[in-house]
Amino acid sequence: MTGKGLDTKDPGDSDQGTVSVEDLDLDIGGVHLKGRWLTPNGVDTGPVLVFLHEGLGCIRMWKDFPERLCRATGLRGFLYERQGFGGSDPIPVGPRPFDYLHVEGEQVLPQVLDQVGIRPRQHILIGHSDGGTIALLFAAARPMEPLAAITEAAHVFVEDVTIAGVLDAKTAWETTNLRDRLARYHGENVDGAFHGWNDTWRRSAFKGWTMVDELPDIRCPLLVIQGEEDEYGTQMQVEEILRWSSGPAEGLMIPNCAHIPHLQAKDSVLGAMGEFIERVLHQG
After folding, report:
1. Alpha-carbon torsion 218, 194, 36, 151, what sign?
2. In Å, how far from its chain's centre is CA 80?
3. CA atoms within 13 A on the CB side of 123
4. Quick one: DSSP state of residue 115?
5. pTM higher than 0.90
6. Strand order in the sheet with 31-40
7. How big is the chain by its Cα radius of gyration, in Å?
8. H or E stretch at 193
9. What is the C-alpha separation between 182 and 11, in angstroms, rounded?
10. 240 neighbors 155 (Cβ within 8 angstroms)
């Protein structure tokens, strides 16, 4: 999820160092999705960092953060764009089914991992916002498969502040150049991407959405990150994940940071993720 506070500036020609980039096309049940491999030089095996974008995100909107984390950890990375985002196939304009996050986490993500050859116990999920929720849903449905999961600004239930942030994003869509800025990343998908997120979360019946009951099924280590000034959620999201998940879990609240920690507090997040990943691999 992203609207207010959206960072849509390109990073320019950032130095990718020793990380090579390979774009690819996926076919998931007849739906075309865009993917990307990030490979540090000399690395062709071992665990993979799987990046899951936010509710208005795509590969390019991660900026250079995935490359930096792959370079710091010496691990390969894989990113893909869900249907309706970036260069992947479109979705109809309008609200999505209430279970769309469950579908992505429990049905689509397993197919994507299988198609690109990422096997169980060989991946660490890194999800931002909707992507964080999708990572948690996958980990709950397949508790023995991920080595670990890292979330940023994930939602496990809907708060009043969440709805207020969504409404602010709708106002920005209608009164600012937000559509044009997002169109740089989503092209013809831009209307479906925005309304598929915003219209869904604004529906009154969606206020009752939750995945808290599924959190006890999560057994893998978790790092749960959130900005203290997140315009879409409070510390209660982190507390619920830590309280109910069954595996080792640690939370990180970042001061002076809103909804996009990997861009708004890049160095802090990079360090925290790197240290967590090192502990997971060492303990495993």
Report:
1. negative
2. 10
3. 27
4. H
5. yes
6. 19-28, 31-40, 76-80, 48-52, 123-128, 148-152, 222-227, 249-254
7. 17
8. helix 190-202
9. 15
10. no
Q: Which residues contact 37 (CB under 8 A, 6 or more apart)?
A: 21, 22, 24, 76, 77, 78, 116
- Determine contact, residues 115/26, Cβ cutoff 8 Å: yes
Q: How far apart are CA 206 and CA 125, in angstroms?
A: 26
Write the CB contacts of 117 (distance below 8 Å, at least 6 apart in sequence): none
Spatial distance between the Cα atoms of 228 and 24, rounded to a whole number of angstroms: 36
User: What digits encode the pLDDT tens for the residues 57-73?
Assistant: 999 999 999 999 999 99
Position of tokens 């964080």?
132
3-state secondary structure of 8: coil
If pLDDT is split at 50, 70 and 90, which confidence band does 5 have? very low
Q: By the 8 A CB rule, do 202 and 171 touch?
A: no
pLDDT per position as a tens digit, 257-276: 999 999 999 999 999 999 99
Contact 70, 77 (CB under 8 A): yes
Q: Which amino acid is at 111?
A: Q
Crossing angle of helices 178-186 and 190-202, rounded to 10°: 120
Chain-centroid distance of CA 249 in Å reads: 18
Closest CA to 162 of 131, 200, 107: 200
Picking from 204, 201, 128, 207, the residue whose alpha carbon sits closest to that of residue 165 is: 201
